[in-house]
Amino acid sequence: MSDFKAPPVPGADDKLASGQDAFASSSGGVDHQTSDDDFNLGGGPSHSSQKRPLKAPPAGDALIKVQPLKKADMQPSYAQDLGLQDVEHGFYGSMINGLGACAGFFGQLPCCFCFPNPFKEVNQGSVGLVSRFGQFYRSVDPGLVAINPCSETLRIVDVKINLSVLPRQTVMTKDNVTIDIEAVCYWHVTSPYRAAFGVGDVRAALIERAQSTLRDVVGSRTLQALITDREGVAVQVEEIVAGVAEKWGVSVEAILIRDLLFSKDLEASLSSAATQRRIGESKVVAARAEVQSAKLMRQAADVLATPAAMQIRQLESLQAMAKTSGAKTIFVPMNLMGGESAMSNLATTQQLSSI
């Protein structure tokens, strides 16, 4: 059986040589940007010529770039180990600790369901406080924590920013006006040890302290000052509460007055006072306008009281009367024609009539 040989393709050797040169000239690797036409040995249409060209994104479109999270922006580390070298628990403590270690060893096996699992999970935004025989000795960051199930306990403390709503309370202002007030408090734990072991319920203690401080601050201000300077009242309450909360391991971010609620009688009186104030302001504006009008009329009267102005007005009246139809007699005042000329004309008229 003879070997079959394919007929040579015209120009194949030249194409192959050029392809090898291009591969050798690269920096030791394959040039992925080389088109398929350079390696088309058959001389036929290449696959790249049949593909549609990729469209470049418009120049005006902005590219969204995701910045990597920096370590400074993440949750700060609260991990700390105080150690228990100087603490002695005696034979009983050592026995319980040993039993817990054995139980934890078998509990971490997937097939042993009768033993407690020694691994506990601490979520992001929280801190774990580990105590041995009731005594705190280390704090752990978020993640998987291994504890002794018989001698150690894990307490989770939330260090995220919390929102506490101060319940509505009735307070009295300095001018003996009773109102209902609502507020909110933003806070977070800065010292997990103080917040967990220094205060029984840090949230309830903070809310009660903020409520009492709000009553004191509102009671030292009038109703008008409370309405116009609500932000100032909130800042004053925040400063007082923040000083006390710092001892509890809590930082107060802000305290805001959410709403002021008035009784129906107080709303009616405030509305009536506002209406009367607007009426009084309108009367003041009208009185000022009348005074200004009187001043202008006085100035006009002073100008029109001159003899020349009076003669101009008389002439205007005569012109208006002359424009009307029908026979009429117009009496021209002597002062318009001049006193001496009028008397001379009258004497001449009398002499002519006597002749």
UniProtKB/TrEMBL annotation:
This is Band 7 domain-containing protein. PANTHER family: AT06885P-RELATED, BAND 7 PROTEIN-RELATED. Gene3D superfamilies: 6.10.250.2090, Band 7 domain. It comes from the Eukaryota. SUPFAM superfamilies: Band 7/SPFH domain. It holds the Pfam family Band_7. Belongs to the band 7/mec-2 family. Residues 117-278 form the Band domain. GO terms for cellular component: plasma membrane; side of membrane. Residues 1-58 are annotated as: Disordered.
